[in-house]
Design brief:
Radius of gyration: 24 Å
Structural class: mainly alpha
Strand content: under 5%
Strand order of the largest sheet: 1-2
Order of helices and strands: HHEEHHHHHHHHHHHH
Number of helices: 14
Helix content: over 70%
Low-confidence stretches: 1-103, 409-414
Shape: globular
Mean pLDDT: 75
Distance between the termini: 61 Å
Length: 414
């Protein structure tokens, strides 16, 4: 009798334990599904403060002219590289897992959701600020190779400081791995050069509209190099993307061929890097976490950017040269440094977010981010947009969103 009672009690505890774990998991699931909505709502509340009511300091230029180099208000606290497809949500940290075991699963899930929402909002804001600062610097100093080298150098410095202060463990990497990552780094560097070249020639909104055609290059290159056959639905989602980009290009006020083909070249290089990483690295990138893979890629991208800069443009980013142009040296250097910081920050946040959500969720969030950047840049720079141009941009972005949703059944690289 006593043994039967003990067994019954144990079975009851087991049932209660399973029920508690099931409920904890369902809460976490429901919370994670609503991350994109939370981030979008948070951003919409702060967007006006980013663009509206901005003081517009001007750079003084010799000869009486004035160079507009407006500085938006600073934030008050507020893998563009190959990434591994993450098939499922990353488990909660050990502390959160322990809290869940003690019955605090809902609180732990809400805390994780709040962190993730803050990261997405910061990802969007850093991307907005990067595009604004970068456009201002490129208009005043139209040297995309020099700006690219500066941005990659700034990112490399941050990475070495991160390792030196043990904010993240330094990687152990073999020469064979470096040899395989090197061509990907070259593609990353050239993709950044062409993006800067496009931003210097056309409106920020138009560059990002063209870059919305990345799924087209992904599908074509995956079919060619990886023998991946897209479904009819995926092919159908490419129609509004290509048609929207074409319509926006035909009606774009700032259109010129250098800016257009530079953005297209950036798409081709970035997606070639992503696709070829699967073929070249295989599973070897598993030896590196996402942050260190991005860090190695950044440092290896910086190394060839220096000789390319010297060959294409010479040494332009010097006090003597900048003073000879009549530009305000201090303002220009501050904006260039802030652009470099935002450039490195938003790319690293992209990795951190991808480690916490599914690839489909990350892809959808990235699509929303592009919409936010386009709207913010149009408002800040007062870019003229015709109804037909807006229709083309909307169709392209709608196609990207549809493509992201259709990839639910098949993991997608970010």
């Amino acid at each position: 009798m006593q043994g039967a009672a003990v067994a019954a009690a144990a079975a009851s505890r087991s049932t209660a334990w399973s029920t508690a774990r099931h409920r904890g998991g369902s809460v976490s699931s429901r919370v994670n599904v609503n991350v994109a909505a939370s981030a979008s709502a948070s951003f919409s509340g702060s967007r006006g403060g980013i663009v509206a009511g901005v003081a517009l300091p001007l750079l003084r230029v010799r000869g009486g002219g004035r160079q507009d180099l407006s500085l938006p208000p600073l934030l008050s606290g507020g893998r563009a590289v190959t990434t591994r497809a993450v098939a499922a949500e990353v488990p909660l940290p050990a502390d959160d897992a322990a809290a869940r075991e003690r019955g605090g699963g809902a609180a732990g899930g809400l805390a994780e959701t709040a962190r993730l929402g803050a990261m997405i909002v910061a990802w969007y804001l850093l991307n907005i600020y990067f595009n604004i600062y970068n456009k201002q610097v490129l208009e005043a100093l139209p040297f995309p190779y020099t700006i690219t080298a500066f941005q990659l150098a700034f990112g490399s410095l941050i990475i070495f400081l991160m390792w030196a202060f043990k904010l993240h463990p330094a990687p152990i990497i073999s020469p064979a791995q470096l040899a395989k990552i090197a061509p990907l780094a070259a593609g990353h560097m050239l993709g950044t050069v062409f993006t800067n070249m496009s931003l210097g020639k056309v409106a920020v909104s138009f560059t990002h509209t063209i870059k919305a055609s990345e799924p087209f290059f992904t599908v074509v290159l995956s079919a060619f190099f990886l023998n991946e056959t897209p479904s009819l639905l995926v092919l159908g989602s490419l129609v509004p993307i290509v048609g929207g980009v074409a319509l926006a290009s035909l009606t774009e006020v700032s259109f010129n061929w250098i800016g257009f083909w530079s953005a297209m070249a950036s798409n081709l290089l970035n997606q070639s890097r992503n696709v070829l990483s699967k073929k070249l690295l295989g599973g070897e990138e598993e030896a590196l976490d996402d942050i260190n893979l991005f860090s190695i890629l950044t440092i290896l991208s910086f190394l060839p950017s220096l000789p390319l800069m010297l060959f294409a443009e010479g040494v332009k980013f010097t006090p003597g040269y900048l003073q000879s142009t009549g530009l305000n040296l201090q303002e220009l250097c501050v904006r260039a440094a802030l652009a470099g910081l935002c450039f490195h920050g938003y790319q690293k946040l992209s990795y951190l977010i991808l480690a916490r959500v599914s690839p489909v969720t990350h892809s959808v969030a990235n699509c929303v981010k592009r919409v936010v950047v386009i709207v913010a840049s149009v408002l800040f720079f007062r870019t003229p947009i015709s109804p037909v141009n807006a229709l083309g941009t909307g169709a392209a972005l709608g196609g990207v969103f549809l493509y992201s949703r259709l990839k639910r059944t098949k993991p997608k690289d970010a």
